[in-house]
Structure formats: C-alpha cells, structure tokens
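Protocol step 4 of 6: structure prediction from sequence.
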Amino acid sequence: TDRLAYELSVIHDMGFDDYFLIVWDVMNYAHQHHIQTGPGRGSAAGALVAYVLEITDVDPIANDLLFERFLNPERQNMPDIDLDFPDNKRQEVLNYVYRKYGDNHVAQIATFGTFGARQALRNVGSVFGKAQVTLSEWANTVGNNPNLPAETLTAVRDQSQKLRELIENEDHGQLWFDTARKLEGLPRHVSTHAAGVVIADQPLTLHTPLQASSTHIPNTQYTMGDVEAVGLLKVDFLSLSNLTILHDGLAAVGKLTSRPVKALDIPLDDPKTYEIFQHADTNGVFQFESDGIKNVLKQVAPTSIEDVVAVNALYRPGPVQQIPHFVARKHGREAIAYPHPDLVPMLAPTYGVMVYQEQVMQVTQKIAGFSLGEADILRRAIGKKKHETIE
C-alpha cells in the first residue's frame, strides 16, 4: 500500500496520470477482445501501478523490481511503456486507438532508410549506366573485412586493394566513387517505424508535419528523436510473432481440454519445461533461439524461472563476461563470495554475481547511501558509458 501511494504521488507530480490511463485503456481493449498481450518488458515492469492496472503481468514486489528505474523524480523523463501484441492483431489495436482519439490526434512515426556503402555504390553505378556484373564487382568489395564492423566507403577503399584497382581502371571510376561517398548516410526513402505511435490531445499538425502512409493512419514526418524533442507522447506498439504462436497454442490446449487456458495459469515449477531449457531445445522460444544463448543454457542447466531469467540477462554485451562465474557458482565449482556482507540479500539469487541493472541500483543505495533516484542516474551513465557522469 505504501509503495502504491508513493508511485501514484510521483506519477501525479510528474503529470503522467493521463499517460497511464491511455495505456490502461489500450491494454483493456486488448484484454476485452481476447488479444494476447506480452507480460511487460523493460523498466515499466518495475511499476506496481502498471501491475495492478494489468498493463504488465509481473509482480514487481515479488521480483525485486524498482519503480525508480522506470520513473525517477530526480530526472525528468517521459515514461516509456512498450506494449507487445501478436503480429496479426497489432493493426486491430492501432485502429481502435485511431477511432478513439480521432483523426489528426494519432499517427505512426516515420523512419528514414539511408544509403549504406554497398547501396550507394550500386545506385550511383546504375545511374552511370554500368553493367550488372560491374555493379556486383564493386558492391562486393564492401562487407569482406572483419576489422571494419561499420564500413564506410573511405574505410573500405583504404583497406581494399581490389576497390582501389576498380576505381583506377574503370571509366569515370573516381567520379563514381566520389559521388557514392557523398550520398552515403543520406536519407534514401521514408518508411513507417516498426513500433512507434504518437497520441496527442491537440491536433498533431500543430506540432509535426504529417504525411500519408500505406494505411489510413498517417505518419509523422519527424523521426522518433524529433517527435520526443517537440514534446509529443510516444507509445511503442510492438508486434511479436511469438505472441501469435502463444495465442494459437493456448487456443489448441483449450480445445483439447474443453476449458479456457491463460498463459498465467501455467505453473513456473514444471520440471519437464526445465528439461527443455537444459537441453536447449528452444527453437521458437522468444530470445532463446540463437546458437550463443543455447550454449549458455546448456552450461547453466536452469532449474528455476530465476535461472532462465538470469540467462536472458547475462547474454548481453555487459554481463556476458560473468557467465563462467555464474555457471561455476551455480554448480558448486566456485565458492560464492560477496565483496561485503551487506550485499548478500541483493546478490544471493544470482550466486553473488551482479546480473541485473536493479542490482546496480540496490548496491549503490546500500554502499554509497544514494537515493534510488540518484542510483538510477548512475545506472544510466554506466549503461551509456558516460564517464564524466559516472565520476
């Protein structure tokens, strides 16, 4: 009760009451129309208000999730609740929002596709009337150097003897290359962002130019960052084929058992399910399909939902180096040690290894005496590698 009162006061003081009610209304429509929704992703799962409104399905108190990671009274930022819908139902939910809030109050967000190095070479060569085989020869010099993860044409030329020879030996080769280099990175075409939607109480054209899209809902001509910069409310409506599979699976089980089944009815302690994860037989399981994460699953051999969650969190650029310690400690091959006894309550579930961003915040609060709001600012700085802020 104390936590709900605190969260509601922060939401109200920051002026986001209507935001929560709009998101609740969207999710309520989905639930009323038997549309499978995701359990919640990202920092929004730390809000108890979101849980009791059934925007998310994850109890933040039972799972030690922190509200300050979502909304921080010490750092004015827009709340960001990402909503997951089945890929065959997202448009239906969007249509509802468009009907409810009206023409010129709802739009999807535009995104610009830009000229990549390979595409710039091909398109310019095509305008120069070059043969298809020549276009391929030039384009294939891009993407062959493992030392150049983000390849620019200048970097490719400097590294590729082949491209330098092609430029030298081709009619107008230098002009072709120079023109392509000028186009590189410039917008090539406009399309619709996969998730972003804006909803406004005033006509959108007071804040952003609009343009027609392939559906009846227009696009903003501003991209995601600019939409937020002018103060518009952005909500991400994500479409997941995984939720379509889940919905169809639950419907099939319902038919076979002659009773409706919900995802939340499935127990989290089923040993046969954990055997599937231990053997990494996880094709079709969202976020557990890549060869890399399957390898981690086999090493960890999960026996609880906490282990499964930890694997998902560990298999990311920052914590990935902790995987050997996590595995060795889980299986008793390495002693579980803590830098300080005060850290035991927050690090015990992950065998003394820091896995989650919430743990960074809790440790900072405990050791440095920061408020959770200050700890969240440090967490963000670590995530974005902002050394000055960290100092």
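Step 5 (inspection) to follow. The mean pLDDT is 91.
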